[in-house]
Amino acid sequence: MRTLHPVAASILVLAATAHAQPFNVDIHPAEIETFDVSGRTIDEVSGRIGLGHVARTRWHVGWKYAFEESGSCRLKDFRVDVSATIRMPRWVDRDSASPADRRTWDAFDVAMRKHEEGHRENGIHAGQELAREIPGVGSRGDCGQLKAAIEETANRIVAKYGQADADYDRVTNNGLTQGAVLR
Predict the structure, then answer these.
(1) Is 161 a domain residue?
(2) Cα dist. 32→95, 106, 156 in Å?
(3) pLDDT in the model for residue 18
């Protein structure tokens, strides 16, 4: 199982170009936000949390680039930045609950964190694919054309992984099939 607070990783992805220039993908640790849920029992907590999207992950893939011009416009540098914020419930009365309810909560918490980490992985995969695909854009007659090609490719890749997030929620029933259920 992956940890929720991984050490920041910097992965060099070798571009598949004639010059095999490396492009950086900076993957930042997930920022964890919590919201408090009170209740003396799992039934009370479950009633307050409700059904559906109990937790949420928002990932962001950003990119920066620089060009060089010498007859045509070529990509000189390209950097990808991946970040994510995971919002999870925190049971404030957990320590005063029965051992059975604490075990139920703990199993739910682990399963929900695993589910949310799956969303974060989609963002990481988007960043990695972006770093692999952008070198294939090549060079253009002017930098405006190259910028448009980079933005189109990047937006297409990010949208692809946004759809992967929606598919992931559908397949896992928002984490229920992974054990993220309190009842």
Answers:
(1) yes
(2) 21, 17, 28
(3) 34
Could you tell me if 123 and 59 are in contact, meaning their C-beta atoms sit under 8 angstroms apart?
Answer: yes
State which H helix or E strand residue 108 sits in.
Answer: helix 99-133
Rounded to an integer, what distance in angstroms lies between the CA atom of residue 57 and that of residue 37?
18
8 φψ region: left (φ > 0), alpha (ψ -120 to 50), beta (else) = beta
Task: Give the chain's radius of gyration (CA, Å).
Answer: 21
Rounded CA separation 182/174 (Å): 13
* H or E stretch covering 9: strand 9-14
Whether residue 102 lies inside any domain: the answer is yes
Ranges 12-16, 44-48, 113-117: which has the least confidence: 12-16
Structural element, H or E, at residue 149: helix 143-172
Judged against a pLDDT cut of 90, whether residue 156 lies above it is answered with: yes
Write down the residue that tokens 């070198």 correspond to.
135
- Tell me how long the chain is: 183
Structure-token match 């002017």, residue found: 142
Evaluate whether residue 3 is within a structural domain. Answer: no
